[in-house]
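Protocol step 6 of 9: fold each sequence in the batch and record its structure tokens directly after the sequence line. For illustration, a two-sequence batch is reproduced in full.

Sequence one:
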Amino acid sequence: MRVADWLGWDVDRTESVITAEPMAETVCTALSILTGAPGFRIVGITRSSQGGTVFVTIASAQLHHRVTLNIIG
């Protein structure tokens, strides 16, 4: 069972946007890398069946990492 189903959330779909751009200063500080280092910014917006936003996730990763998405359901 998905966590969203267990919580009773109306989850219809997730939109993902992945861009390559200089990482934010706060991210670089947290990762102990040079400010402005290139990286992936991954934004996932989960929508309800009416199109409203249920939750949003934002992740950053250095360019030399691999980004893998498993889309189920």
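Sequence two, same batch, same settings:
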Amino acid sequence: MGKLSLFNKSTQENYNAKMAQEIQSGTAVFLRPIKSWELLSPYNYKSGKIYEGQNFINLLNSAITHKNGAFLTYKQIQELGGFVKENAKAQEIIFWSFSEKHDKETGQKMLGKDDAPIKYAFLKRFNVFNLAQTTLENLPTKSQTPKDTEQLQKAVLDFVNCNQGLISANSYNEFFAKWAAGRAYMKEDNMATSWCMAKSYLIAELVNLFICSKISADFTPIYSEYQEMWAGLFANGYLDFIKCAKIAKETSDELLTWQNLEKLSA
């Protein structure tokens, strides 16, 4: 996989600066308790796709503020016959895309091991608006709650209860965070450094938020005492918010797809 372009580096730096500011001011969504009814999964109103990873975190505050989880791009708003309200502020989202490398002189695809095309990753940026920020605000919103939420919540909490002996915790929030912190910490190369530990705790907090949103449970932050350290690490470029959110999504998916939970999709 090739290196990220300067465009992508700029995108990452912008996200880091934004997150450092939110953490410093205490407005970052994972620094405060959130009731289950507030955890409106942000989704694209036209496609129905639920936003994940860093996009979920980036849009959740807006969803909570407007009491609406639906979002649209400016073009989608126009296609639906609507307009953006005056002074409405857009939220930026990003998507990873992949492209095949080509030789600059011949234009032919560049091949790697096993004659497979060499691919590189790049980011696409989009601005979206909450449905409540548009003249389409009265359109009926769609429920983004999975049909098996109650089953999933029971299965996850049963899993927590069965493993309390392995992970001592006073609440399911603490269990999720401790479980995730252990996995994130094991993935780091420099396990002795304090910033590595802080990164692991940040990922664990995001995992906690992701899991609570999936099972419609109240979210309570566990590692908020690292607030100042996280802000400093993002501001100085020692952490990459996009990558932390990606690892957190993968880790939360790991728990929700374990064999003891697979019966829900059988």
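Proceed to step 7 once all outputs are recorded. Observation for sequence two: DSSP finds eight helices and four strands in the chain.
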